[in-house]
Amino acid sequence: MDALPPTVAAVDLGSNSFHMIVANVDGQGHLHLVDRLREMVRLAAGLDEGKYLTPVARQRAIDCLSRFGQRLSNLPQGAVRAVGTNTLRQARNGAAFIAEAQRVLGHPIEIIAGREEARLVYLGVAHGLAARDEMRLVVDIGGGSTELIVGEGFVPMERESLHMGCVSMTLAHFPDGRISAEAMRRAETAGALEMRPVQEEFRATGWQSALGSSGTIRAIREVVRGEGWSEQGITYASLKRLKKALIEAGSLDRLGFASLSPERRPVFPGGVAVLLAVFKALNIEQMMVSDQALREGLLYDMIGRIRHEDVRDRTVASLSRRYGIDEPHAQRVEKTARALLDQVRNNWSIGSGDYADMLGWACRLHEIGLAVSHAQYQKHGGYILQNADMSGFSRQEQALLAALVRGHRRKLSPQDVFGTLPESLLPSAIRLCILLRLAVLLHRSRSAFCEPAPFLKVDGNRLHVAFPDDSLDAHPLTRAELEGESLRLKAVGFELGF
Q1: 374-379: Cβ within 8 A, 24+ apart
Q2: Residue 404, Cβ density class (10 Å: 0-12 exposed, 13-18 middle, ≥19 buried)
Q3: pTM for the whole thing?
Q4: For 26-32, which contacts have Cβ atoms below 8 Å and span 24 or more sequence positions?
Q5: In a shared domain, residues 11 and 87
Q6: pLDDT number for residue 477
Q7: Could you count the other beta carbons within 10 Å of the beta carbon of residue 423?
Q8: 469 located within any domain
Q9: Which of 302, 323, 353 lies at the terminal end of a domain, its last residue?
Q10: pLDDT score, position 2
Q11: CA of 292: how far to CAs of 5, 129, 141, 234, 286, in Å?
Q12: Is 214 part of any domain?
C-alpha cells in the first residue's frame, strides 16, 4: 500500500484490556479520531501456572476480537495494525490463539517485544504533546509490564520494559482483595527490585518532565484529582495519600472513590504499588498524564511505513554499521534478489511490499554473522538477528528475517531454519530464502563489476535460470555452484534447472 488509506485503525491486545481506535487520515498524514472501543479482557489473569491461556480467557478474548472485527470489516488489508503485548509474549499457546484471533479480527496480529512496545508508546505520547526542546520521561503501566522511555521530540533515547504491571502485581500481593500495610510494603519492594537495574541509567538522562500513559495511570489521576489531593496530574504527595487511603480501606470492596470505575477496581492496588515504585526509584515529584499511548503510536508508525519513513530501515542500517558489513557487496546482492523477485512475484504470490522489504533487509544483513566467525556464519547471523533489539520489527518479522539469514547458504533444513515460524508463513519464507540464496550465489566473486542478469521462471516448485548470450559457459564456477544448489534445493522439494 503506497498511498495513505482514508481510514486506519489500531488494535492493542493488552494484558488487562483490549483497545481499538479508528481514525481518518487527511492529505498531510494527520489523524482525526472517529471511533474508540475498549473491553476489559484481563488476559494476564487467564494465564495458568504453566503459562498457558485458559480456555475461559481465550474465549473472552476471542469474543472481544470478533466484535472488533465487525467494526473493522470494511477496512482493507494494510489499514489495520494489531499487536499483542506482555501476556501474549509469555503464553505458551500464544501461536494457536493468534491464529484463531486473526481469523475473527480479519487482520494480521503481531507480537511485539517489550522495548518495541516502549518505542511505540513514546511515539504515541510524543505526537500528543506540544513541541518543546526538553528530555521527557514517559511511563506506561500495563497489565503485565511497565514501559519506561526517555526521549526528546519524537526520538526515544532510552527504553526499557519491566516485568511488573497492575494485574501481575495485584495477583502476587493482593490476590484476595485485602489491602494491608504489609501487602503494600511487599508490593512496593517487589517494584523497587524490578526498578533497581535501570534506575541509575534513567536518572542519568537528566529528563525534565514526567508523563504517564495507560489506563492505570489515568485512573490514579482521576482518583487523586477527585479526592482533591492534586489539581495537576499526579504528585508524589498525592500518591502517598492514596496509598494510605487504600490501607485504611483494607479491602477492594470498601474503596469509596467515586471516580474509580468498577472494572478498574480489581487491579487498582497493584497499579498504585507499581507507580509508587517508579516515583521513588526515579525521584519523580509530579507526573502529568497523556491520553495517547500505544494505540496512537501504532497508527503514526503505520503512516510512517506507508510514506517510506520506516524505522526498520534505520534499524537495519544501524546493524550493518555496527557489525562492519560490506555494504557495497550487500547492495549488489539486494539488487539481484529484487530483480529475481520481480520475475516471480505473480507466480509465487510473494509480490507484496512487505515481502520485498524483508528480502531486501535479509540481503543487507546476510553477512552479519561474519563479525563472529566465518565458519557457519549463517548460523551466527541468524542467532544475532533472532535475539537483537530491533526497533520497528515485530517478533514474527524478526523471526522471519533471522530465518532467511540462517538459511542463505549451505544445507537448507526446513526444521532447523524455519522451525520457529508459523506454518502459514512457511511457503513464502522458503521461496524468499531461495531467492536470497540464488542472489548470494551469483555474487560469489564479490566483484564490483559483476552484474548478473539471469532470467528466472518458476512453475510451482520448479525453477529454471537462464543467462543472456550463454554467459554461463564462460563462468564454470557459477555453473558448479548452481549444480550444488540444485542438489540442496531437492531436499526441500524444489527443482532447479539452468
Answers
A1: 376/410, 378/405, 378/406, 378/407, 378/408, 378/409, 378/410, 379/406
A2: buried
A3: 0.90
A4: 29/4, 29/303, 29/307, 31/296, 31/299, 31/300, 31/303
A5: yes
A6: 85
A7: 9
A8: no
A9: 302
A10: 60
A11: 21, 9, 13, 17, 18
A12: yes
pLDDT in single tens digits along all 498 residues of the chain: 567 789 999 999 999 999 999 999 987 778 999 999 999 999 999 999 999 999 999 999 999 999 999 999 999 999 999 999 999 999 999 999 999 999 999 999 999 999 999 999 999 999 887 656 789 999 999 999 999 999 999 899 999 999 999 999 999 999 999 999 999 999 999 999 999 999 999 999 999 999 999 899 999 999 999 999 998 999 999 999 999 999 999 999 999 899 999 999 999 999 999 999 999 999 999 999 998 999 999 999 999 888 878 999 999 999 999 999 999 999 999 999 999 999 999 999 886 668 999 999 999 999 999 999 999 999 999 999 999 999 999 999 999 999 999 999 999 988 899 998 988 889 999 999 999 999 999 999 898 888 888 999 999 999 999 988 767 777 788 889 999 999 999 988 999 999
Asked if residues 87 and 47 have their Cβ atoms less than 8 Å apart, the reply is yes
Report the number of distinct structural domains present in the chain: 3
Q: How far is CA 355 from the centre of its chain?
A: 17
Q: Could you tell me if 225 and 348 lie in one domain?
A: no
> How many whole angstroms separate alpha carbon 99 and alpha carbon 289?
35
CA–CA dist 66, 406 (Å, integer): 37
**Half-sphere exposure in the Cβ direction for 305 (13 Å, CA):** 20
Q: Which residue type is seen at 413? A: S
Residue 327, number of CB atoms within 10 A of its CB: 13
Domain boundary among 273, 302, 331: 302
CA distance 281 to 164: 14
Residues 82 and 182 in one domain: no
Exposed/middle/buried for residue 186 (C-beta within 10 Å: 0-12, 13-18, 19+): middle
Q: Which three cell numbers stand for residue 464?
A: 529454471
Do residues 61 and 156 share a domain?
no
Domain shared by 74 and 193, yes or no: no
